[in-house]
Design brief:
The complex is a heterodimer of chains A (about 300) and B (about 325). Chain A has a single domain, classed as MetI-like fold (Orthogonal Bundle). Chain A is built from 13 helices and no strands. In chain A, about 70% of the residues lie in helices and about 0% in strands. Helices cover about 75% and strands about 0% of the residues of chain B. Chain B is flat, with a radius of gyration of 24 Å. The chains are: A mainly alpha (about 300), B mainly alpha (about 325). At the A-B interface, helix 7, helix 11 and helix 13 of A face helix 1, helix 6, helix 7, helix 11 and helix 12 of B.
Chain lengths: ~300, ~325
């Protein structure tokens, strides 16, 4: 998961002059980046640092009950304790690991499914393309959160089910995008040449088409990550996503929500953590899109 | 009118097919997949006789095809079956139909969504047009930053911030939206202020950005340039040249966001304990009350498909190229 910012910046080398090395080109692009992009990259790096080194940084264990319920801020427990007496700082730090980890896994899975099927449909065309496209139309005709709620009510809310359900539902959007951009590439001469040479489907997919459609896919990865992250947080907030005692920001908001009635801002901290990360990723994606594509007049 | 009518009818037909397939998906997803509902509802200690009686009473012992026909036939007559929470009826308790659970909550949700849409739609259209006309001004940049931020934060974050500031630190509005059927209209509006404000903030951002993009797109087209060059007044350019062509994208934007509103209500209803259909669905998912989940999912899906269909039809009907065929 730590490869994400590196991937974003190395993607920009495709449009830079080829005589530079990827590293120097990435550094050049970074220096010209607007403050919003810098802000976004910094925030993402800090989050990833906390996520990776959570057990080393957190003062207490993830589900360790250290004091009475709802201890106030300050003293041994910097941000107090939650409804069971677990240290809030530790849970926030572990939450970074769980929430971001699950969202990255889900987005990765969704891209694998959607990307492979999208390339497949674009290259093969014909009835397999039609079949896949119609199936996706049907899946997209039901609002995603509602569909996810329905499936979770059938399969029960375990972490595996959550990841699988969201990944499959989200892969529909990836499929559409991949298919659309790949359609423009598969009609080009070099793909035709590869076909006539007798290259296998896997080679054409990964070597001929994929490198040419990478920039929009990388940007889409950022956007889909935000969406998946928000969906999982919303489900956890509704009590149907990541289940206790796993520390997760969405369910932490739910668990501490009553505090808000006493003017205590504690439940806003995990919610703010979610908000800050999605805003940061959006800023970076915005800059990336601005740099790599013709979407300049959208801004 | 002929080509328009044909396209609209085609689109309607496609919509009906989608509705049919979606109803099959919702039905089969819930019925054919694993999960022993009878024991889940009645508990592990239920005797085989009780399980069989329960399965018979809710019709689980019939083949899936027959059950679908019975279910969809009932739905078309406004009968969604009985809630699993009436399993106690076997022991002589009272039967709770899905309709009796859903109807009052559906009204509440429609009230909230209507209130929100009534304010959000005009507001975002005006803001979007202003941002497009004064592109790259300080106003535009500010609005862009604010809306990008409010799109990317979760709804419950906006909801709790509003609750903290406007209901607890400064007690202006009600923090909980617990209305009932007897609540008088004005009090109902007052109690709905915060949930509705949350939804407005979220969908205005979406709608405004999309309106802005649509208008900028049209203002950049050659025929607007021509009109400008031949000296047409700016106001006339907007009303006579840009607006007729902008109607279709704007209608699409509005319909898509009303569809988005449907999903947004779920989280907001839970935050403000508003007795709407979203909260009912969440509760039923936790209780695995399948008939209620089915009914809620179908209602949400039908509304969503309906709005998308409406967006398509409006964009077909307002397309000047189709309106004046050569």
């Amino acid at each position: 998961m730590s490869a994400e910012p590196a991937e974003l910046s190395s993607g920009t080398t495709d449009v830079a002059s080829p005589r530079w090395t990827p590293v120097s080109a990435a550094w050049r692009a970074l220096r010209q980046a607007p403050p919003t992009a810098w802000f976004g990259l910094t925030v993402i790096t800090i989050y990833l640092f906390f996520a990776v080194f959570a057990p080393l940084i957190a003062p207490y264990g993830e589900a360790e009950i250290v004091a009475g319920a709802y201890e106030p801020w300050g003293g041994d427990y910097l941000l107090g304790t939650d409804q069971l007496g677990r240290d809030l700082v530790s849970r926030l730090i572990y939450g970074a690991r769980n929430t971001i980890g699950i969202a990255v896994m889900t987005t990765g899975l969704s891209f694998t499914i959607g990307g492979v099927l999208g390339l497949f449909a674009a290259i093969l065309g014909g009835w397999s393309d039609q079949l896949l496209a119609r199936a996706v139309d049907i899946l997209m005709a039901i609002p995603q959160l509602i569909f996810a709620l329905m499936l979770l009510s059938i399969f029960g809310s375990s972490m595996t089910n959550l990841i699988l359900i969201i990944a499959v539902l989200d892969s529909t959007r990836v499929f559409r995008l991949t298919r659309a951009v790949a359609m423009n590439v598969v009609v080009l001469d070099f793909v035709e040449a590869a076909r006539l040479q007798g290259e296998k489907l896997g080679w054409i997919m990964s070597r001929e088409v994929l490198p040419n459609i990478l920039p929009p896919l990388v940007a889409e990865f950022g956007l889909r990550f935000c969406f998946v992250f928000l969906t999982i947080s919303a489900l956890s907030f509704l009590g149907l996503g990541i289940q206790p005692p796993t520390a997760d920001w969405g369910s932490m908001v739910r668990e501490n929500a009553t505090l808000i009635n006493y003017g205590d801002v504690t439940p806003l901290l995990p919610a703010g953590a979610i908000a800050l990360l999605t805003v940061a990723v959006n800023f970076v994606v915005d800059w990336f899109l601005h740099k790599t594509s013709g979407l300049k007049d959208e801004r | 009118m002929n080509p328009i009518l044909r396209t609209v009818l085609q689109r309607l037909g496609l919509g009906l097919i989608t509705l049919f397939v979606v109803s099959v998906v919702i039905f089969s997803a819930v019925t054919m997949l694993p999960g022993d509902f009878a024991t889940a509802i009645l508990g592990q200690a239920a005797t085989p006789e009780t399980v069989a009686a329960f399965e018979h009473s809710v019709g689980l012992d019939k083949p899936p095809f027959v059950r679908y026909l019975l279910w969809i036939g009932g739905v078309l007559h406004g009968n969604f079956g009985e809630s699993f929470s009436s399993a106690g009826a076997l022991a002589g308790g009272h039967v709770r139909t899905v309709v009796s659970l859903v109807t009052p909550r559906l009204w509440n949700t429609l009230f909230l969504a209507g209130l929100t849409a009534g304010i959000a739609v005009p507001l975002s259209l005006v803001l979007g047009m202003l941002a497009a006309l004064y592109r790259n001004s300080v106003f535009d940049r500010l609005v862009n930053l604010v809306t990008l931020t409010s799109i990317s934060v979760p709804e419950f974050f906006v909801a709790y911030i509003l609750m903290l500031f406007l209901a607890i630190d400064f007690p202006i509005f009600y923090s909980l939206a617990n209305v009932s059927a007897e609540t008088p209209f004005l009090e109902r509006v007052a109690r709905c202020t915060l949930p509705s404000l949350t939804l407005i903030l979220v969908i205005v951002a979406h709608m405004m950005r999309m309106t802005r993009a649509a208008i900028i797109n049209i203002l950049a087209s050659p025929y607007i340039e021509t009109a400008r060059l031949k000296g047409v007044l700016p106001g006339r350019i907007i009303y006579k040249h840009a607006l007729p062509n902008a109607l279709a994208p704007i209608a699409t934007v509005v319909a898509l966001n009303l569809a988005y509103l449907i999903v947004g209500v779920v989280v907001v209803e839970v935050v403000f304990v508003y007795p709407g259909i979203g909260q009912l669905m969440v509760d039923s998912v936790s209780a695995r009350d399948i008939p209620v989940v089915q009914a809620c999912a179908l209602i949400f899906a039908v509304t969503y498909i309906g709005f998308n269909l409406l967006a398509d039809i409006v964009s077909i009907v307002t397309n000047p190229r189709l309106l004046h065929p050569r």
